[in-house]
Design goal:
Elongation Factor Tu (Ef-tu), domain 3; three-stranded mixed beta sheet; single chain; globular; mainly beta
Length: about 425
């Protein structure tokens, strides 16, 4: 999985080539690099690179570099056995922006934004066709047929419900993102159940595109946590010797169970009034997370639900049911939705809100094994325990899902990974 060595040091740029417009010999520019940053985000369907380059001899001005050019990149790092590669045999990168062009008498500094060729093609393609059947099948069809993304770069969790619609010339990745709150898992109950089964995420990471159920991600009973996914917040003499799986500083909780925010978003209990434009009838639906707890897949054991505010509706919404633009009997097939649409739309809204109950930011020695959508374990001792032990773990320890990460190659202090992670539940309070 990894090579021996200190993960905060030792990256090597094996290739950084710009392919000229119209083809031709690649131009090697690794000597001009000042830094590389790589970004993933579960609420962003595309990865991003930020490349800082310096030119002291007018070399870059003579090329010149333009948006739309192709980039081939390869980096060696001790945290992984295989190199970090982006080229024609994997996925090429495209220059999408050139900014912060700073010039003086001694040098010029460029900041390039790079995205994958598929992220760029998303802006030139449109979904206009009629689609029907399982949402997961529709997502696969859009990615493979419309965008020509190889199957080995697609990871899709199966859905249970159907969704019939016409694309209306929307961009493919936007179209898939709009299907996330409408998707429910295969083990969902029928008709007006309140199982925590609705809500998917769509995002891109190093391995490709993922359409993933939040429930499946948070299913700790079936999770396989690898050693490189367990990070220690121990400090001082208890810091791990090799430092690779320890935090470089204390974790920062930027949000921790904001009750007022939860109430505004309807995380505990919501009332929803919909109008069915096909039947011309009103539809009422309510959702209570307390009723869903036994079926809700969560990262840790305890979900904090304030007794004094959770039994009343904190949010009331009004809208129309999204029946799609097809008729109920499209192509002679009766529309079948195994779970009441009004119910799972309410579930999805509460599920997304619950997922971000606690937001924590950490910095660790660079680990190229990490991906957004993965669950990592944080080991953190209680402050009143002189020597950290598993028995004395802090309630802020436990399982978190990575929602954002940034790999920073070549910063002044070394190679590091910044992580934003969230969770929907807590470790139980152990007392004094």
């Amino acid at each position: 999985m990894s090579k021996k060595g200190l993960w905060s040091k030792g990256h090597k740029i094996k290739q950084f080539d710009i392919i000229p417009e119209g083809g031709g010999e690649p131009i090697g520019l690794s000597g001009q690099l000042l830094g590389i940053k790589y970004f993933e985000d579960v609420i962003d369907s595309c990865i991003h690179f930020q490349i800082v380059m310096s030119d002291t001899y007018g070399f870059l001005a003579a090329i010149p570099i333009r948006s739309g050019m192709t980039v081939h990149l390869e980096i060696e790092h001790p945290s992984v056995e295989e190199n970090f590669i982006w080229n024609d045999t994997t996925v090429p990168l495209i220059v999408t922006n050139i900014s912060d062009n700073i010039s003086d008498q001694k040098r010029e500094v460029y900041v390039l934004t790079l995205e994958t060729v598929h992220a760029v093609s998303n802006h030139t393609l449109r979904v206009w066709e009629k689609h029907g059947g399982k949402i997961s099948n529709t997502v696969e069809k859009i990615l493979t047929k419309k965008m020509n993304i190889p199957e080995d770069r697609i990871d899709i969790d199966e859905t249970r419900n159907n969704c019939d619609f016409t694309g209306n010339y929307r961009r493919p990745l936007f179209m898939i993102t709009s299907l996330c709150p409408k998707a429910i898992t295969p083990n969902s109950g029928f008709l007006r159940t309140t199982k925590g089964s609705a809500g998917y995420l769509f995002y891109e990471d190093q391995d490709g595109y993922h359409f993933k159920s939040i429930d499946k991600i948070m299913d700790m009973e079936n999770a396989n946590i690898e050693p490189w996914q367990v990070y220690s917040a121990y400090t001082g003499k208890y810091l791990m010797e090799d430092n690779n799986l320890s935090l470089t500083g204390p974790p920062v909780w930027t949000e921790s169970h904001d009750i007022l925010k939860k109430l505004r978003s309807g995380a505990y209990k919501t009332a929803n009034y919909y109008y069915n434009i096909l039947t011309r009838e009103p539809v009422f639906s309510e959702y209570s997370i307390r009723e869903s707890l036994k079926d809700l897949k969560k990262a840790n054991e305890e979900v904090l639900i304030p007794e004094n505010v959770s039994e009343s509706y904190s949010r009331i919404t009004f809208g129309t049911l999204d029946n799609g633009t097809m008729t109920p009997n499209w192509r002679g097939k009766k529309r079948e939705t195994p779970q009441d649409q009004a119910v799972y739309q309410s579930q999805a809204s509460a599920r997304y809100s619950a997922l971000f109950s606690q937001l924590c930011e950490i910095t660790v020695p660079m680990n190229l094994n990490l991906r957004v959508g993965q669950v990592i374990e944080l080991e953190k001792p209680r402050l009143n325990i002189e020597k950290p032990t598993q028995k004395g773990k802090d309630s802020n320890a436990g399982s978190y899902m990575i929602v954002r990460l940034a790999h920073d190659f070549g910063s002044a202090s070394g190679d590091y990974t910044g992580i934003s992670m969230v969770r929907d539940s807590y470790l139980p309070y152990e007392g004094r």
